[in-house]
Amino acid sequence: MRIVEACFTPALGGLELYCLNSARHLQDRGHQVQLWLAEGGRAANHPITSEIDTLLFCEPFYFDPGFLYRARRILQEQNIDVVHLHRTKDLGALSWIGGIAYILTLQIDSTRQKKDLYHRFVFSRAAKLLTITNRMKRLAESNLGIRAEKIHTLYHGIDSAALSLRRDKDRSLRGSMGIPAEAVVFGIIGRLEWGKGQWALLKALKQIYDKYPNAHLLIVGEPPPEGAGFDTELKRMAEEMGIADRTHFTGFLMDTAEAYSAMDVCVLASKKESFGLVLLEAMAFGLPIIATDAGGVPEIIEPGVNGLLVKPEDSQNLAEAMVCLLKEPDLREKLGKSGLEIVARKFSLTNHIDELERYFMEAQDWVKGQQR
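Predicted structure:
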């Protein structure tokens, strides 16, 4: 198949990485893949773009004649079979071009009603709408102007076997950050912003700081452009709480494997979380999880099996979970081993790409049926 993977956001988070990785995995399967990305965006500088034919566009408006002219010409000249999109806004920008098999993967929860005439037109152009959790599928069925039979759940998948090979291979980050060998490191990876809950993890460490001198935090990531300076704010909070000596900030890491290898426990402290790809990655590294009971997280984490669930924005509850894992190293090991089994069985990359290919073929058939 000739496939376009398109994502016109300037950021580089889970949504954009899914687009990039999908392009790479589909190309590895023998498909002819082209990436369409935002000019000047972080994704455009990712190493994957050196492996795949990549075109850069100014982020299009909902109706952008210049963008439409260029996009239509490329789609026709290259005889593209499927365009895989990752934002409703991007589907809206392309929806004026008919006769194309569009697939939209929704990765962000929304309770907003989108059943007006414009959105009905936009969603009518999608051959398939894929959601990354069953919860999101139910929301889409209730809130979007698209027929229910077009909506399917497709969990993210990762190559857990490849990641597992890197487990404990590189602990150099601990040494470079000055983390003692005997420390129990609670790590959190993601954009540095209020909704991701790094502040709650700081408050939780403050509560257990004196009693558990081996507890350390590893905070990985950087603020988004619109939230510049939040890293400085978090560091200030750590100083004021008197926990800065056991709080370690790495900044942005292109390769997060070294961060997972430095952790003993992975924490997701988000107020809202549609899925949490970081959880799959952490499970592939054999890490026990502490995660907030939010969004699609309960579809990944089963309390007492592969992790612990806590209330969002509740630093006391988070501190209690941290103490539980500090006091019970055997439980940490048990949760980590279960996570390895679950991620290999339920979130297989091979199965994910198999399903994605199937939906692509069904989308092509749907478009052909519309044209008869």
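Summary: The two ends are 21 Å apart (CA to CA).
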